[in-house]
């Protein structure tokens, strides 16, 4: 028989002064509810693990916390099925996570960023799982990609050739000799024969304009594409609306709007191509018969057809620069005029004996807008180029001479003529170079007003301006000091394919940019850039370009190590461990090379360019640009390119480094054999 507690013991447990019959009857229901609560609470505790059980038991003394927690539990019961599904997935993921951690344990060093490394392992695991679940990705997807890439390049070239042959076939197909010369001729066949007779004439040849009057449809059939100046269009072609399906206007920045009206009237559609950073219509001596009326003020403000077109039509920018073999020849203009947005291939070779831009300082004098000392030095340089720079096949480099004004241009022509008369060796060089030159690639001497559209292997730039006989420098630069004068400089300094020689009688510091326009300031900056390039001062080059274009990345170290990703850092370190010298992010703008291997036997050359599938790869606008055109463009500038794919790197970095190492050794051996 259980012993009942005494009233004193009960009073002590309950914390009351006296237990009476009325107290017991009043609290009996509360005790009964409490027993029921503990029974339910004990069942609830069984659902949780031991840690949670302890936490809930402690809440019993704090009814508010317990009530709040139980309310939250009751609310969450509506999501019970979802929670169960989550728990199920969690168990599956736990297995995967343990597998990932075990795999990562063998790859992580004590000094690594563990969080980053584990994140990378998770990505790698996720990619592997996707590849397993998708049959198209099984095997070696990179090899398949390379095959597809080669096929794409081949198909692009085949398409180009097919289009050319198709155009030729279509033109040839409009003429049917048998029908033309058959016995039973129609009127059309007779016209064809008469037309053919006119084309064969060597005497009394009709002007093209008259041929159009009689045989316009036949002319367009055999010659669907015509190259003509605006004036020729007006003189030769019938004044007929929509005469041409398409008119392409080149160098539209130089074309005044009124000159464009005749051919635009004849066009069904038009493509207007030009560069607003090059020459506008030359109007220094141009006198217009009709002054613009007030209501035409908006139109009269437009300097060219290009300017007018840009106010209404969408502009498409062409960003690839092909002309210059070395980036130094275009970097100045790229940052001074195009905000560094041109795609320019970095130099594969840096020859300290032959910098792409040479600076020659003369002590010439400015007299009657000419500089005789510079003119003679320019002709000396023409001879030096011909004597020392012809290639293995004996072909001389083409040369162009550019001056700032017409008088200096004529003076240099006179000096050339006198040298040809007095120097037999110079005459022989001149003759050989002229005979071996390609069509339209012979020596020219022009001023900045008429050189747009020309290019040569070597450009000799005669600055001309100098102090006068009294030692005074006028600090005025003709049209360069006028509005838009800087565009003339842009044209002049972008004509060279391989080399530019700057002949100057002033130093950059002599120029005080007092003009409200940018021309003189840009000339001073270009001369500074030319001097830095001549001395192979890369930091000096970058300083000039950074002054011009503040958005250009400022680089303070000579060969700074810079990366786009941790992936590149790992490749760089592994290549260093193999004993290779590597430079990173080679180039000033556009198409930089991620990692460039310096030639082991010639520190002025890069043996191999390595690209990782980073920001540049993924930022390409199209598959053709990313997979074909970019590599073809770089290879055309002397680069050998290899790519390392991040997928392959994470799977087997040693194999990728071995592959690159083998490629480097092969390139070195090939050069030895060729020698």
Q: Can you put this structure into words, describing what you see?
A:
- The N and C termini lie far apart (115 Å).
- This protein is α/β, with parallel strands linked by helices.
- The longest helix is centred in the N-terminal third of the chain and has 33 residues, at 141-173.
- The strands form three sheets. The chain has a five-stranded parallel beta sheet with strand order 3-7-6-4-5. Strands 8-9-10-11 form a four-stranded mixed beta sheet. Strands 1-2 form a two-stranded parallel sheet.
- The chain contains 26 helices and eleven strands.
- 24% of the residues are buried.
- Helices cover 51% and strands 10% of the residues.
Strand and helix layout:
Elements: H1 7-14, H2 21-45, H3 50-59, H4 63-76, H5 80-105, H6 114-133, H7 141-173, H8 177-180, H9 187-200, H10 208-222, H11 230-236, E1 244-249, H12 257-265, E2 267-272, H13 297-300, H14 305-310, H15 328-337, E3 357-361, H16 372-388, E4 399-403, H17 406-422, H18 424-436, E5 444-447, E6 456-462, H19 485-492, E7 496-504, H20 519-534, H21 538-548, H22 566-577, E8 582-586, E9 593-599, E10 602-612, H23 615-618, H24 623-636, E11 641-644, H25 646-651, H26 653-674
Parallel strand pairs: 1-2, 3-7, 4-5, 4-6, 6-7, 10-11
Antiparallel strand pairs: 8-9, 9-10
Helix pairs in contact: 5-6, 7-24, 11-12, 16-17, 17-18, 19-20, 20-21
């Amino acid at each position: 028989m259980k012993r009942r507690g005494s009233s004193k013991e009960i009073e002590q447990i309950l914390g009351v002064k006296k237990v009476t019959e009325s107290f017991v009857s009043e609290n009996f229901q509360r005790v009964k509810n409490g027993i029921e609560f503990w029974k339910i609470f004990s069942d609830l505790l069984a659902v949780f693990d031991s840690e949670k059980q302890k936490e809930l038991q402690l809440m019993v003394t704090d009814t508010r916390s317990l009530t709040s927690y139980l309310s939250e539990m009751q609310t969450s019961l509506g999501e019970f099925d979802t929670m169960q599904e989550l728990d199920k997935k969690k168990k599956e993921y736990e297995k995967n996570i343990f597998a990932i951690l075990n795999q990562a344990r063998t790859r992580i060093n004590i000094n690594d960023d563990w969080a980053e490394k584990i994140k990378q392992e998770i990505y790698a695991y996720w990619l592997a799982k996707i590849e397993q679940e998708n049959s198209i990705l099984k095997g070696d997807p990179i090899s398949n990609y390379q095959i597809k890439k080669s096929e794409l390049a081949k198909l692009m070239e085949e398409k180009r050739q097919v289009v050319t042959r198709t155009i030729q076939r279509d033109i040839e197909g409009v003429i049917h000799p048998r029908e033309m010369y058959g016995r039973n001729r129609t009127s059309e066949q007779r016209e064809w024969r008469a037309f053919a007779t006119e084309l064969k004439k060597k005497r009394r040849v009709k002007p093209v304009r008259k041929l159009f009057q009689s045989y316009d449809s036949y002319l367009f059939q055999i010659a669907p594409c015509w190259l003509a100046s605006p004036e020729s269009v007006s003189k030769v072609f019938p004044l007929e609306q929509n005469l041409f399906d398409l008119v392409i206007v080149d160098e539209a920045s130089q074309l005044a709007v009124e000159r464009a009206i005749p051919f635009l009237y004849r066009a069904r559609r038009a493509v207007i191509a030009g560069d607003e950073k090059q020459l506008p219509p030359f109007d220094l001596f141009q006198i217009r018969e009709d002054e613009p009326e007030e209501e035409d003020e908006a139109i009269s403000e437009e300097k060219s057809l290009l300017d007018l077109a840009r106010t209404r039509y969408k502009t498409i920018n062409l960003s690839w620069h092909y002309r210059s073999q070395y980036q130094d020849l275009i970097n100045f203009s790229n940052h001074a005029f195009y905000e560094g947005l041109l795609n320019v291939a970095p130099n594969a070779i840096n020859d300290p004996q032959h910098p792409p831009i040479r600076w020659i300082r003369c002590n010439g004098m400015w007299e009657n807008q000419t500089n005789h000392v510079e003119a003679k030095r320019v002709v000396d340089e023409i001879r030096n180029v011909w004597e020392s720079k012809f290639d293995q096949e004996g072909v001389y480099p083409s040369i162009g001479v550019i001056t700032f004004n017409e008088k200096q241009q004529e003076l240099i022509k006179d000096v050339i003529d006198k040298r040809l008369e007095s120097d037999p060796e110079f005459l022989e060089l001149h003759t050989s170079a002229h005979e071996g030159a390609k069509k339209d690639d012979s020596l020219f001497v022009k001023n900045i007003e008429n050189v747009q559209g020309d290019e040569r292997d070597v450009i000799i730039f005669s600055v001309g301006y100098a102090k006068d006989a009294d030692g005074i420098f006028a600090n005025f630069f003709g049209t360069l000091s006028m509005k838009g004068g800087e565009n003339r400089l842009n044209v002049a300094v972008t004509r060279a394919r391989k080399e530019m020689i700057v002949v100057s009688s002033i130093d950059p510091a002599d120029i005080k940019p007092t003009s409200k326009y940018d021309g003189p300031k840009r000339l001073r900056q270009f001369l500074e850039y030319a001097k830095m390039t001549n001395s192979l001062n890369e930091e000096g080059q970058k300083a000039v370009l950074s002054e011009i274009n503040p958005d250009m990345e400022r680089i303070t170290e000579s060969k700074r190590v810079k990366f786009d990703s941790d992936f590149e850092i790992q490749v760089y370190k592994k290549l260093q461990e193999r004993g290779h010298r590597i430079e990173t992010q080679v180039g000033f703008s556009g198409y930089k090379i991620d990692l460039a291997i310096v030639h082991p036997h010639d520190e002025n050359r890069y043996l191999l360019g390595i690209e990782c599938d980073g920001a540049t790869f993924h930022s390409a606008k199209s598959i053709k640009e990313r997979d074909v055109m970019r590599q073809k463009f770089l290879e055309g500038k002397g680069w050998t390119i290899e790519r390392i794919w991040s997928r392959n790197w994470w799977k087997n970095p040693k194999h990728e480094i071995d592959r690159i190492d083998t490629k480097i050794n092969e390139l070195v051996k090939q050069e030895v054999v060729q020698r």
